[in-house]
């Protein structure tokens, strides 16, 4: 094991699990050791008028034609996080030939559910319109997230009302990817989460599992093995949502990986930590299997 990898693992061990992998120093260390040589980064693009409505685009430096596109939302219990800390995700996706969009979104206490999700949908809608100029194919669009961000991705992909505000449908997505996401978490136990969703008056419509339909996009759901995620129960959330999708006849890939926890699952996308688990390989296989041919004419 290299000194660099040992250092990163030691840093990750210091991350409080309740922070959902948003502690600044470890993430900056991961970013510093993650190669960005395959990426062209366009930062600070506004997708709305508010300070938190900005995103960064990571495009592969070498790609023939338009590339599949992944909009990524980070976790942080809907009350913390910033897109710059997840540059390693953008570089990882760009290294596989995809255009990655890493979006900030408004957080509690500035906003609650559902405004957080409205930002997520707005970022996806911006991407559908603008990503072609960054080398991305808007007809091969995916959403992805980790932890709370996986919830955002799930709701954008399943709750038809969110994209409808922008003249889009979940069927406009080629698929969605959730990493250790909470998809069925009522009643809420976490005291930091309760005010985000107005608990105990949380509407059942806030739960992704209640939005599964027979037209939901294909899904890739990845979580740590049972017992290795102390924040989000993989069996209830990943397993429960996968079962609900299958019951509707929807394609879903459900994976539980060894060697990772709630926090290190997303960290395993970074180049120095990929030996922890083949997370990026699974994501790439899913995107490639659902991408189909490049679009030749404008979508919008």
Automatic annotation (TrEMBL):
Residues 55-235 form the BD-FAE-like domain. GO terms for molecular function: hydrolase activity. PROSITE patterns: PROKAR_LIPOPROTEIN. InterPro entries: AB_hydrolase_fold (IPR029058), BD-FAE-like_dom (IPR049492), GDXG_lipolytic_enzyme (IPR050300). The keyword rRNA processing does not apply. It comes from the Bacteria. The keyword Hydrolase applies. Keywords: Hydrolase. It holds the Pfam family BD-FAE. PANTHER family: AB HYDROLASE SUPERFAMILY PROTEIN C4A8.06C, CARBOXYLESTERASE. This is Acetyl esterase/lipase.
């Amino acid at each position: 094991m290299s000194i660099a990898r040992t250092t990163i693992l030691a840093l990750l061990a210091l991350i409080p699990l309740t922070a959902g992998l948003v502690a600044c120093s470890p993430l900056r260390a991961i970013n510093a050791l993650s190669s960005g040589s395959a990426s062209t980064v366009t930062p600070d693009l506004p997708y709305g008028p508010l300070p938190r409505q900005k995103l960064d685009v990571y495009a592969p430096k070498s790609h023939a034609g338009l590339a599949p596109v992944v909009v990524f939302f980070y976790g942080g219990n809907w009350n913390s996080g910033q897109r710059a800390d997840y540059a390693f995700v953008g570089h990882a996706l760009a290294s596989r030939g995809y255009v990655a969009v890493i979006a900030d979104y408004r957080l509690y206490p500035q906003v609650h559910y559902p405004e957080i999700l409205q930002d997520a949908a707005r970022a996806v809608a911006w991407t559908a319109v603008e990503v072609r100029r960054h080398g991305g194919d808007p007809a091969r669009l995916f959403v992805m997230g980790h932890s709370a961000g996986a919830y955002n991705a799930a709701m954008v992909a399943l709750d038809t009302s969110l994209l409808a505000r922008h003249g889009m449908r979940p069927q406009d997505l080629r698929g969605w990817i959730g990493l250790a996401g909470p998809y069925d978490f009522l009643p809420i136990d976490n005291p930091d989460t309760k005010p985000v969703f107005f608990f105990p008056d949380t509407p059942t419509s806030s739960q992704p599992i209640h939005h599964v339909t027979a037209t939901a996009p294909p899904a890739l759901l990845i979580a740590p093995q049972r017992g290795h995620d102390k924040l989000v129960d993989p069996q209830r959330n990943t397993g429960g949502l996968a079962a609900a999708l299958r019951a509707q006849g929807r394609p879903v890939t459900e994976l539980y990986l060894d060697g990772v926890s709630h926090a290190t699952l997303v960290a395993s996308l970074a180049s120095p930590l990929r030996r922890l688990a083949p997370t990026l390989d699974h994501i790439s296989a899913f995107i490639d299997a659902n991408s189909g041919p490049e679009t030749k004419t404008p979508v919008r």
